[in-house]
Amino acid sequence: MSDRATGPVDPHGPHGSTDPHDGHVHHEHGVAPHEPDPAAHADAAHLAAEHAAAHDPSRVHVPHPAHVHAPGAAPEPHVVGPELLRLEGLEVHFPVRGGVIDSLLRRTRGYVRAVDGIDLSIRKGEILALVGESGSGKTTTGRVVVKLTRQTGGRIVFEGEDISELWGTGRLRPYRRRVQLIFQDPYETLDPRHTVGAFVEEPLLVGTKRMPREERQRRVREALEAAGLRPASDFAARYPHELSGGQRQRVVIAGALVMDPELVVADEPVSMLDVSIRTELLRLMLDLRRSRGLTYLFITHDLSIAWVLADRIAVMYLGKIMEIGPAEEVIRAPRNPYTQALVSVSPSTDPPEPGAPARTILVGETPDAAQVPPGCRFHPRCPLAFDRCRVEEPPLVEVGEGHRAACWLSGVGPRDLPVIDAVAAAIPAGMPPPVATS
Amino acid sequence: MTGVREPGAVSATRGRRQVPLPRLADPAAPLLVVEDLAVRFSLPSGSVKAVDGVSFRLDDGEALGIAGESGCGKTTTALSLVRLLPANGRIRSGSVKLFGIDLVPKTEKQLARYRWREISIVFQGAMNALNPVRRVGDQIAEPIEVRLGRSRDASRKRAAELLDLVGIPGQRASAYPHELSGGMRQRAMIAMALACDPAIVIGDEPTTALDVMVQAQILQLLERLRRELGLSLILITHDLSVIAETCDRVMVMYAGKVAEEGPVTRVFTAPRHPYTQKLLSSFPNIHADRRTLDVIPGQPPDLRNPPPGCRFAARCPFVMDVCREVVPPEVTFGDGVRVACHLYPGRDAAGPPPRVVGATRTCDAASSTDPAP
Question: Cβ of A345 and B183 within 8 Å?
Answer without folding.
Answer: no
